[in-house]
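R.M. (postdoc): so does anyone remember the format we settled on? I'll just put the C-alpha cells first.
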C-alpha cells in the first residue's frame, strides 16, 4: 500500500472490549481538529504495524466529525492484522490511517433491509444511524454465534432504532433464527438489500434473494473474510507488461503483485486478499483466474481487469495494461 494514502495520524482515544473477541477503537485527531467527513458504509485503511495495512469499516454515526470508531474481531486466520490490533494497540497510541473511502455506499430507496453476519455489523450500524437520522424505513437483522459474541448490543438497545433491529443467535431457539425465505421471499421493487459478513452468510443471502427474483442492482454486499488466494493446484504463468514488453514468470507460490514488486513494478495494494479493489489492473490479453471477492460476476466474465494481489491466470500468459 502506498504510504502516501495513509495521510492521517490519529490517536487511539479509547479502546473497549465490546463483546467476546471484539474490541472497538475510538480514533481522533491528536489536536482535536475535525476529521474528514465520511458516508455510511465507508472504511479506513489502518497501518497496524510495519508492512501491515488492514481495512476497517467505520461504525460510528456518519454525522460525527470528531472521531472514527472501528470494531475489530480477533481472527486467528487473518494473517496477523486483527491480533496485532487486539494485542498491541493501546489507548494513547498514534496510528497512521487513510482518509475514509466508500465502496459500499447507501443508495436511495424507499426501504432498506440490512443484514449483518458477525463483525459485518460495523458498516451496517453506521448505515442504521444514517437511516434513522434521515427517517428512512429500514430493518436490521443481526446474526451472531451467541449473545456474548454480539457487539454493540447496548448501543443498539439504547438507540432510537432499537425496535427495528432483530437479533438472531446461532445457539438460540430455532424460532429466533433468521428466516431468509420469509424476509426476502417477496421482492419489493422499492427496497434495497445491504449485507455484510462472512462469505457463507453473504452467499446465502444473495442466493435466496436472487432465487426470489430480486434484481442484482438492488443487492449490495461487502465481504469481510478474504478469498482463498492459493491452492495446491496453482501453476506458474507469465505476465507481460504492455508498455515495455517485459515479461516475468509468476511461480506457484507467489502472487503477481509480489513478482512485479520484486522487479520494481509498483502496484498499489491494500487488503492483499481480493476484497478492496485497490490493486485492480487492466488485462489486455489472456484469461485471468479470478480469486477476488471485489468484482461482480459480469466483471469477472469480461476478463479485462483483475486483482494481482490474489488472482492468477488460466492462460499461459497475461498481458497487463501496465
Ligand atoms: Fe485489495 Fe488487491 S489489494 S483487492
Amino acid at each position: 500500500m502506498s504510504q502516501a494514502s495513509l495521510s492521517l495520524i490519529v490517536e487511539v482515544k479509547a479502546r473497549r472490549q465490546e463483546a467476546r473477541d471484539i474490541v472497538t477503537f475510538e480514533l481522533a485527531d491528536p489536536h482535536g481538529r475535525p476529521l474528514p467527513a465520511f458516508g455510511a458504509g465507508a472504511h479506513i485503511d489502518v497501518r497496524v504495524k510495519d508492512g501491515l495495512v488492514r481495512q476497517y469499516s467505520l461504525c460510528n454515526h456518519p454525522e460525527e466529525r470528531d472521531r472514527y470508531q472501528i470494531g475489530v474481531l480477533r481472527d486467528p486466520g487473518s494473517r496477523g492484522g486483527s491480533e496485532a490490533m487486539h494485542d498491541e494497540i493501546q489507548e494513547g497510541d498514534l496510528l497512521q490511517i487513510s482518509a475514509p473511502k466508500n465502496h459500499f455506499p447507501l443508495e436511495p430507496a424507499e426501504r432498506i433491509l440490512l443484514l449483518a453476519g458477525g463483525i459485518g455489523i460495523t458498516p451496517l450500524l453506521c448505515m442504521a444511524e444514517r437511516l434513522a437520522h434521515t427517517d428512512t424505513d429500514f430493518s436490521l437483522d443481526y446474526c451472531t454465534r451467541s449473545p456474548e459474541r454480539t457487539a454493540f448490543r447496548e448501543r443498539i438497545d439504547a438507540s432510537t432504532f432499537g425496535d427495528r433491529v432483530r437479533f438472531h443467535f446461532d445457539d438460540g431457539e430455532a424460532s429466533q433464527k433468521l428466516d431468509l425465505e420469509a424476509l426476502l421471499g417477496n421482492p419489493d421493487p422499492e427496497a434495497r438489500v445491504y449485507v455484510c459478513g462472512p462469505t457463507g452468510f453473504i452467499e446465502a443471502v444473495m442466493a435466496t434473494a436472487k432465487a426470489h427474483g430480486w434484481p442484482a442492482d438492488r443487492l449490495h454486499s461487502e465481504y469481510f473474510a478474504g478469498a482463498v488466494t492459493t491452492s495446491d493446484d496453482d501453476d506458474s504463468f507469465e505476465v507481460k507488461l504492455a508498455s515495455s514488453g517485459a515479461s516475468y514468470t509468476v511461480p506457484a507460490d507467489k502472487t503477481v503483485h509480489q513478482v512485479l514488486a520484486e522487479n520494481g513494478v509498483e502496484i498499489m495494494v491494500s487488503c492483499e486478499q481480493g476484497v478492496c479493489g485497490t490493486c485492480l489492473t487492466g488485462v489486455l490479453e489472456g484469461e485471468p483466474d479470478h480469486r477476488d471477492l471485489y468484482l461482480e460476476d459480469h466483471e469477472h466474465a469480461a476478463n479485462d481487469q483483475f486483482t494481482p494481489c490474489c488472482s492468477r491466470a488460466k492462460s499461459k500468459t497475461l498481458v497487463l495494461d501496465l
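R.M.: ...and that's the designed sequence above, right after the C-alpha cells. Also worth knowing: The chain has three domains: 3-97, 111-223, 237-320. Residues 225-230 have pLDDT under 50 and may be disordered.
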